[in-house]
Protein backbone atom coordinates (compact mmCIF):
# COMPACT_ATOMS: atom_id res chain seq x y z
CA UNK A 1 0.00 0.00 0.00
CA UNK A 2 1.29 3.48 -0.83
CA UNK A 3 0.18 6.44 1.28
CA UNK A 4 2.04 9.34 -0.32
CA UNK A 5 4.10 9.71 -3.50
CA UNK A 6 6.53 12.40 -4.71
CA UNK A 7 8.04 12.45 -8.19
CA UNK A 8 11.76 13.21 -8.45
CA UNK A 9 13.84 13.71 -11.59
CA UNK A 10 17.43 12.86 -12.41
CA UNK A 11 18.46 15.54 -14.90
CA UNK A 12 21.90 14.80 -16.42
CA UNK A 13 22.13 18.41 -17.63
CA UNK A 14 22.25 19.74 -14.06
CA UNK A 15 25.63 20.58 -12.55
CA UNK A 16 27.42 17.83 -10.63
CA UNK A 17 29.11 19.49 -7.67
CA UNK A 18 32.33 17.69 -6.72
CA UNK A 19 32.21 17.35 -2.94
CA UNK A 20 35.27 18.44 -0.93
CA UNK A 21 37.97 16.10 0.29
CA UNK A 22 39.09 14.69 2.62
CA UNK A 23 35.53 13.83 3.74
CA UNK A 24 34.58 12.92 0.17
CA UNK A 25 36.86 11.15 -2.32
CA UNK A 26 35.59 11.15 -5.90
CA UNK A 27 31.97 11.80 -4.89
CA UNK A 28 29.58 14.34 -6.48
CA UNK A 29 26.19 15.87 -5.56
CA UNK A 30 23.37 16.85 -7.92
CA UNK A 31 20.16 18.58 -6.92
CA UNK A 32 16.80 17.80 -8.48
CA UNK A 33 14.37 20.09 -10.33
CA UNK A 34 11.69 19.42 -7.66
CA UNK A 35 14.05 20.45 -4.84
CA UNK A 36 12.27 23.74 -4.04
CA UNK A 37 8.88 22.00 -3.89
CA UNK A 38 10.04 19.12 -1.69
CA UNK A 39 12.51 20.72 0.73
CA UNK A 40 10.52 21.77 3.78
CA UNK A 41 7.67 19.39 2.88
CA UNK A 42 6.26 17.39 5.77
CA UNK A 43 5.53 13.66 5.43
CA UNK A 44 3.90 11.41 7.99
CA UNK A 45 5.52 8.02 8.62
CA UNK A 46 4.04 5.78 11.33
CA UNK A 47 2.23 8.71 12.94
CA UNK A 48 5.39 10.85 13.13
CA UNK A 49 5.76 14.00 11.02
CA UNK A 50 9.12 14.38 9.27
CA UNK A 51 10.34 17.46 7.41
CA UNK A 52 12.46 16.92 4.28
CA UNK A 53 15.55 19.13 4.51
CA UNK A 54 17.91 17.83 1.83
CA UNK A 55 17.04 15.86 -1.29
CA UNK A 56 19.06 14.94 -4.38
CA UNK A 57 21.34 12.47 -6.11
CA UNK A 58 24.89 11.61 -5.12
CA UNK A 59 27.40 9.29 -6.71
CA UNK A 60 30.81 8.69 -8.18
CA UNK A 61 32.18 8.43 -11.70
CA UNK A 62 34.53 5.61 -10.61
CA UNK A 63 35.49 4.26 -7.19
CA UNK A 64 34.67 6.71 -4.42
CA UNK A 65 34.20 7.02 -0.70
CA UNK A 66 32.71 9.11 2.07
CA UNK A 67 34.58 9.15 5.39
CA UNK A 68 32.89 8.31 8.68
CA UNK A 69 30.81 11.26 9.84
CA UNK A 70 27.88 11.90 12.14
CA UNK A 71 24.38 12.92 11.14
CA UNK A 72 23.87 15.24 14.15
CA UNK A 73 20.58 16.92 13.24
CA UNK A 74 18.75 14.68 10.77
CA UNK A 75 18.18 11.12 9.63
CA UNK A 76 19.73 10.28 6.26
CA UNK A 77 18.17 7.72 3.92
CA UNK A 78 20.22 6.42 0.98
CA UNK A 79 18.63 4.53 -1.94
CA UNK A 80 21.19 2.83 -4.23
CA UNK A 81 20.02 3.23 -7.85
CA UNK A 82 23.03 1.91 -9.80
CA UNK A 83 26.44 0.55 -8.97
CA UNK A 84 27.82 -1.36 -6.01
CA UNK A 85 29.01 -0.26 -2.61
CA UNK A 86 28.89 -0.69 1.15
CA UNK A 87 27.67 1.65 3.86
CA UNK A 88 28.60 1.16 7.50
CA UNK A 89 26.21 2.64 10.08
CA UNK A 90 27.61 3.02 13.61
CA UNK A 91 25.68 4.03 16.72
CA UNK A 92 28.72 5.85 18.13
CA UNK A 93 29.06 3.73 21.26
CA UNK A 94 32.52 2.47 22.09
CA UNK A 95 31.68 -0.72 23.95
CA UNK A 96 30.58 -4.31 23.46
CA UNK A 97 26.97 -3.20 22.93
CA UNK A 98 27.90 -0.99 19.98
CA UNK A 99 26.62 -1.71 16.49
CA UNK A 100 28.66 -1.04 13.35
CA UNK A 101 26.54 -2.65 10.68
CA UNK A 102 27.75 -3.04 7.08
CA UNK A 103 25.01 -2.71 4.47
CA UNK A 104 25.81 -4.06 1.02
CA UNK A 105 24.24 -1.85 -1.65
CA UNK A 106 23.62 -2.84 -5.27
CA UNK A 107 21.50 -0.73 -7.56
CA UNK A 108 18.90 -2.53 -9.69
CA UNK A 109 19.62 -0.62 -12.92
CA UNK A 110 22.67 0.10 -15.04
CA UNK A 111 24.25 3.54 -14.79
CA UNK A 112 23.53 4.19 -18.49
CA UNK A 113 19.78 3.95 -17.66
CA UNK A 114 19.77 6.38 -14.70
CA UNK A 115 18.84 9.47 -16.75
CA UNK A 116 15.97 7.69 -18.58
CA UNK A 117 14.42 6.11 -15.47
CA UNK A 118 11.42 7.53 -13.57
CA UNK A 119 11.65 7.98 -9.80
CA UNK A 120 8.90 8.11 -7.19
CA UNK A 121 9.66 8.59 -3.50
CA UNK A 122 6.80 7.01 -1.58
CA UNK A 123 5.60 6.31 1.93
CA UNK A 124 4.68 2.64 1.63
CA UNK A 125 3.46 0.14 4.19
CA UNK A 126 3.39 -3.56 4.81
CA UNK A 127 1.85 -5.78 7.46
CA UNK A 128 4.49 -6.14 10.21
CA UNK A 129 4.68 -9.87 11.00
CA UNK A 130 5.54 -9.47 14.66
CA UNK A 131 3.23 -6.62 15.64
CA UNK A 132 0.37 -7.44 13.23
CA UNK A 133 -0.06 -3.83 12.11
CA UNK A 134 0.80 -1.73 9.08
CA UNK A 135 4.40 -0.50 9.23
CA UNK A 136 5.27 2.52 7.07
CA UNK A 137 8.63 3.35 5.55
CA UNK A 138 10.13 5.36 2.68
CA UNK A 139 10.82 3.57 -0.58
CA UNK A 140 12.18 4.83 -3.89
CA UNK A 141 10.36 3.24 -6.82
CA UNK A 142 12.55 3.25 -9.93
CA UNK A 143 10.88 2.52 -13.25
CA UNK A 144 13.24 1.52 -16.04
CA UNK A 145 12.61 -0.36 -19.29
CA UNK A 146 9.04 -1.24 -18.29
CA UNK A 147 9.96 -2.66 -14.87
CA UNK A 148 9.52 -1.09 -11.43
CA UNK A 149 12.17 -1.66 -8.77
CA UNK A 150 11.28 -0.70 -5.19
CA UNK A 151 14.49 0.33 -3.38
CA UNK A 152 14.57 0.24 0.40
CA UNK A 153 16.88 2.75 2.07
CA UNK A 154 19.97 2.30 4.15
CA UNK A 155 19.13 4.68 7.00
CA UNK A 156 21.44 6.51 9.37
CA UNK A 157 19.37 7.71 12.35
CA UNK A 158 20.02 11.14 13.83
CA UNK A 159 23.09 11.01 16.08
CA UNK A 160 24.53 7.90 14.37
CA UNK A 161 27.59 7.89 12.10
CA UNK A 162 28.16 6.35 8.70
CA UNK A 163 30.72 5.90 5.96
CA UNK A 164 30.41 4.67 2.39
CA UNK A 165 32.67 2.85 -0.07
CA UNK A 166 31.62 2.83 -3.73
CA UNK A 167 33.25 0.05 -5.76
CA UNK A 168 32.45 1.46 -9.19
CA UNK A 169 30.51 4.08 -11.11
CA UNK A 170 27.47 4.58 -8.86
CA UNK A 171 24.38 6.74 -8.38
CA UNK A 172 22.20 6.88 -5.31
CA UNK A 173 19.33 9.01 -4.08
CA UNK A 174 19.65 10.82 -0.74
CA UNK A 175 17.04 12.34 1.53
CA UNK A 176 17.74 13.98 4.88
CA UNK A 177 14.79 14.48 7.19
CA UNK A 178 14.10 15.50 10.75
CA UNK A 179 11.23 14.95 13.16
CA UNK A 180 8.88 17.88 13.64
Question: Which descriptors apply to this entry?
Answer:
Jelly Rolls, single chain, mainly beta, 2% helix, 180 residues, 4-stranded antiparallel β-sheet, 14 strands
Strand content: over 45%
First-to-last CA distance: 24 Å
Give helix and strand order, one letter per element, not per position: EEEHEEEEEEEEEEE
Number of domains: 1
Q: Can you summarize this structure?
A:
This protein is mainly β and 180 residues long.
Polypeptide structure, described:
The structure is a single chain. The protein contains one helix and 14 strands. The chain is mainly β and 180 residues long. The chain has a single domain, classed as Sandwich (Jelly Rolls). The strands form two sheets. Strands 2, 3, 4, 5, 6, 7, 8, 12, 13 and 14 form a ten-stranded antiparallel beta sheet that branches. It is globular and about 45 Å long.
Q: Helix and strand layout, with pairings?
A:
Elements: E1 2-8, E2 17-18, E3 24-30, H1 35-38, E4 42-45, E5 48-70, E6 75-82, E7 84-90, E8 100-106, E9 118-128, E10 133-144, E11 147-151, E12 154-156, E13 161-166, E14 170-179
Antiparallel strand pairs: 1-9, 2-3, 3-5, 4-5, 5-13, 5-14, 6-12, 6-14, 7-8, 7-13, 9-10, 10-11
